[in-house]
């Protein structure tokens, strides 16, 4: 994504190349061009652009991708933290 | 089968303006189900969208002169992107809606066209297994749908690259304001009474102006100036817009006449307030990650709290002596 960069080395995206069947579905769904076809192998070329939306992991038919996706705004994370520590009952966001 | 028009009326546009400001947002929904645009037949493409009226409008408005089916999912009036994150624009709902609308009897092909940003909620291989329908993630923006359909359902790389233009950021600001309204009103009222009590009403009014300006600098200034503010951290960007506001406020409100304590307190508190609202904007951007925001918060929240408390202590000391 041109002109916008977020923190480096934070994404939880993991790829298990052993499981990958190189179907290219992750390339199709990722809005940040994190994956690319290298010869006949799909690889991660842009790890730091990942926004952890979870689309690739959700659509990977071989379960080769894992990412911790979810609420990404400060207010939402605070509410989540409060709920996890049993200080609040329900979570509303977005 | 409801037949719908591809033209947006004045009422549609007025409605979309109201939704941006959060007025009657929850009532602004389309009943889920299958809709016909033009005169579609059993070979016509099926486009899937959310029942948030703006999502649905953006799809049907680009389909003028075309014959298509639109399958609207129940996302409780939430747009595709947020609904996919929540899972309402999701695998189960899609499978359920395909069944309820008897889509297999309406079309002879087995293909569905989905927005790329819906992929976070839908597992294409599971839908295929349950219903036989192949999912094609077409494009991020509805305006690219015609090109997609005309090019034999091919997605050009730019159609699946996300953008965050100035206009795309501007339309998010009203909701930021609406969400900030209540806490800001409470904080401003408190600030006014305390300052008015310790000093006088003028000082109270001034403090409220400074605070509200800092909220605006964070919630509107940061999104607007986003690509031009240096650094990667949103909290840092917020400190910058907050500092710019502090300087403007200092000059407008006759800061040279303030005590040194007051000036110092203002320059500590206002940027911290802006930083919080800037950090909160990460929830609306299409490029920040949850882990990144978590990491920022670990450093930024304690820093903001310290700046805030120190600023308040300095202000009170200043008023007392
Ligand atoms: S979707 Fe999964 S299996 Fe397919 S290329 Fe990507 S990682 Fe490999
Ligand atoms: S989580 Fe989203 S942004 Fe990250 S690689 Fe997967 S699809 Fe791309």
Give the integer mean of the pLDDT values of chain B.
90
Tally of distinct domains of chain A: 1
The number of helical runs of chain A is: 3
Spell out the helices and strands of chain B N to C.
EHEEHEHHHEHEHHHHHHH
Q: If classified by CATH, what would the architecture of the largest domain in chain B be? A: 3-Layer(aba) Sandwich
Spatial ordering of strands, largest sheet of chain A = 1-4
- Quick one: which chains have the greatest interface? A-B, 40 and 48 residues
The largest pleated sheet of chain B is described as:
4 strands, mixed
- Beta percentage of chain B is 5-15%
Strand order of the largest sheet of chain B: 1-2-4-3
Provide a descriptive summary of the structure in words:
The complex is a heterodimer of chains A (about 90) and B (about 325). With about 90 residues, chain A is of the alpha+beta class. Chain A has a single domain (about 15-85), classed as Alpha-Beta Plaits (2-Layer Sandwich). Chain A is about 20% helix and about 15% strand. Chain A is built from 3 helices and 4 strands; from the N terminus they run E-H-E-E-H-E-H. Chain A has helices at about 25-30, 55-60, 75-85; strands spanning about 15, 35-40, 40-45, 65. Chain A has a two-stranded antiparallel sheet with strand order 1-4. In chain A, strands 2-3 form a two-stranded antiparallel ribbon. In chain A, a hairpin with a 2-residue loop joins strand 2 (about 35-40) and strand 3 (about 40-45). Chain A is globular and about 50 Å long. The model of chain A has no long low-confidence stretch (mean pLDDT about 85). Chain B is an alpha/beta fold and about 325 residues long. Chain B has 2 domains: about 5-160, Rossmann fold; about 165-320, no CATH class. Chain B has 13 helices and 6 strands. Classes of the chains: A alpha+beta (about 90), B alpha/beta (about 325). The structure holds iron/sulfur cluster (SF4) (2 copies). One iron/sulfur cluster binds near residues 32, 34 and 54 of chain A.
């Amino acid at each position: 994504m041109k002109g916008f960069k977020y923190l480096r080395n934070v994404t939880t995206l993991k790829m298990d190349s052993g499981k990958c069947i190189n179907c290219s579905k992750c390339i199709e769904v990722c809005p940040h061009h994190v994956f690319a076809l290298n010869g006949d192998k799909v690889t991660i070329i842009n790890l730091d652009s990942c926004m952890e939306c979870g689309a690739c992991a959700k659509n990977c038919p071989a379960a080769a991708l894992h990412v911790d996706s979810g609420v990404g705004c400060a207010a939402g994370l605070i509410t989540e933290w409060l709920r996890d520590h049993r200080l609040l009952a329900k979570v509303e966001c977005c | 089968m409801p037949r719908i028009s591809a033209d947006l009326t004045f009422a549609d546009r007025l409605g979309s303006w109201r939704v941006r400001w959060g007025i009657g947002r929850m009532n602004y929904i389309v009943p889920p189900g299958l809709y016909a645009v033009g005169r579609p037949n059993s070979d016509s493409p099926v486009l899937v969208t959310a029942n948030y009226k703006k999502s649905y409008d953006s799809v049907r408005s680009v389909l003028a002169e075309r014959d298509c089916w639109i399958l609207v999912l129940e996302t409780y009036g939430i747009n595709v992107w947020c609904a996919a994150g929540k899972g309402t624009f999701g695998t189960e709902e899609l499978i359920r809606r395909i069944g309820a609308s008897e889509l297999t009897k309406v079309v002879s092909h087995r293909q569905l066209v989905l927005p790329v940003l819906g992929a976070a909620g839908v597992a294409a291989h599971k839908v295929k297994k349950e219903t036989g329908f192949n999912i094609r993630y077409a494009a991020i923006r509805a305006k690219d749908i015609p090109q997609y359909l005309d090019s034999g359902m091919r997605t050009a790389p730019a159609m699946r690259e996300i953008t965050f233009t100035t206009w795309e950021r501007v339309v998010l600001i009203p909701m930021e304001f609406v969400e900030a309204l209540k806490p800001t009103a409470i904080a401003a009222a408190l600030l006014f009474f305390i300052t008015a009590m310790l000093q006088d009403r003028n000082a109270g009014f001034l403090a409220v102006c400074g605070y509200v300006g800092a909220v605006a600098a964070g919630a509107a200034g940061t999104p607007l100036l986003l690509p031009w503010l240096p650094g990667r951290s949103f909290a840092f960007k917020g400190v910058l817009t907050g500092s710019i506001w502090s300087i403007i406020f200092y000059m407008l409100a006759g800061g040279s006449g303030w005590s040194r304590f007051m000036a110092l307190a203002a320059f500590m508190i206002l940027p911290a307030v802006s930083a919080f609202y800037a950090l909160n904007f990460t929830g609306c951007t299409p490029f920040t990650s949850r882990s990144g925001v978590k990491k920022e918060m670990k450093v930024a929240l304690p820093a903001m709290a310290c700046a805030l408390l120190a600023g308040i202590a300095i202000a009170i000391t200043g008023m007392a002596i």
